[in-house]
Amino acid sequence: MIENHAFNTMHEAICEAGRILLVAHKKPDGDTIGSSSSVLNWLIREGKDVTIFCADAPPEAFHFIDSIHRYSNDPVVFEQNYDLIIVFDSGDLRYCGIDQHITKTPPGYFLINVDHHGTNTHFGDVNIVITEASSTAEIVFHFFHNRQIHIDHCMATSLLTGLFTDTNSFTNAATNPNAMNAFSKLIAAGGRHQDIKKHLLFDKNIDSLKIWGILLSRLRHNKTYDVVSTYLLLKDAEHVSTDIIEGVSNFLNEVTTGTDTILFLRELSNNKIKGSFRSVKRNIANIAKLMGGGGHNKAAGFTINGHIEETTNGPKIIPEGKTE
Ligand SMILES: [Mn+2]
Q: Ligand 1 center to residue 120 CA distance, Å?
């Protein structure tokens, strides 16, 4: 199998490296944090010289992950020498938020790309891109298993976080027998799935439930394109953390009947709009790509410059310039 060879190369590169930099993508989700922190916890156990970077600080909800305090969002880490850089869960270096930073890194490093996005550009010296995998965490689980590396309870909790979040708690189309197999082994290894459930799935305060109420009240079905959409304006969530609306698109995709596609538009600061598509059958990665974004066939997104204007006929996107 191709993966065996790639896993072997990755293991050798890690063993031989003096200094290692691990990278999670910007606006981190459970999978990029889970996959990168599992390797971080392993390398700490092995006494390796390891640095970990994420362009945006991991949200508070991830505090239960062991060594979460080790993530740096200071680009200065890229000005140092590394033998090995490993990027987790990123289709390309721009999505990751390090395309500029990495130009400052002294040459000579080996770059490994571990991902499951169909739109991955194979930017690494070695690319472990398995699009059938439910999550990057599942790929890292196979790596540890394949290389007979002991998965301790810290690593198991990290990997479970990636599996839980990318499969929407083992309910979405990405859920497969390999993911379920990894889940059972990670529970047996001491993974704290109750912490994940508490902090990432059910931890909703009253402010966040009210925001969900606004989003539900704005649902519209465009019958021409068969798309159900909703939107969030910057002013709606001015005083609350936007972490609370993570999962809205997945939730709507699971519970909305009578349509194939969900589109959730959200105004960001800096005059940008983030769009998240979810679908049951359509390949929406292609549509997201046309808008300058990317992702999976059934879960994809984009960011455009502009703002949302509310009209009597519903929301209208006012674009400004071309895609990001
Ligand atoms: Mn992922």
A: 12
